[in-house]
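Deliverable D2.4 — example input (structure tokens):
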């Protein structure tokens, strides 16, 4: 899934401004330019620019810090690129403090059901024999379910 689409969804879920999105990037150790932030949300631009994997990795780490706070006990983990849908799903699970059952309920709210074993396969390491890549559809349903869960409109 495109990085910009994930960030737009998170902005909608949390109901935050462009300034807060920039703050999330900063929490993750990335200093975005004003142009980068406006490019993410610019709907009129016929040409879509894709955010770099490095910037997206910083954004996801910053989202965890934004939602849960920084821990002084643990040093910041190095970012890992490229950012896959599985990585986005894992980081969102951590940021929103979701357990397996809560993830399944979130997906069901959006009209998508997934068994525990299928869900666990998405969180495995890539070299594990039961690893399964997370498709765009699953991530879209998950983001839609998060919006339904956290938006009170």
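Example output (designed residues):
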């Amino acid at each position: 899934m495109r990085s910009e689409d994930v960030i737009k969804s998170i902005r909608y879920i949390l109901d935050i401004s462009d300034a807060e999105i920039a703050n999330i990037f900063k929490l993750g150790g990335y200093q975005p330019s004003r142009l980068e932030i406006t490019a993410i949300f610019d709907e009129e631009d016929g040409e879509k620019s894709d955010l770099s994997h490095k910037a997206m990795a910083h954004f996801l780490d910053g989202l965890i810090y934004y939602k849960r706070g920084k821990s002084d006990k643990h040093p910041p983990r190095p970012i890992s690129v490229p950012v896959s849908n599985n990585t986005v799903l894992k980081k969102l699970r951590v940021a929103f403090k979701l357990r397996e059952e809560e993830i399944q309920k979130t997906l069901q709210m959006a009209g998508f059901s997934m068994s525990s074993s299928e869900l666990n396969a998405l969180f495995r390491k890539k070299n594990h024999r039961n690893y399964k890549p997370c498709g765009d559809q699953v991530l879209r349903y998950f983001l839609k379910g998060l919006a339904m869960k956290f938006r009170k409109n």
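Residues 53-68 form the longest helix (16 residues).
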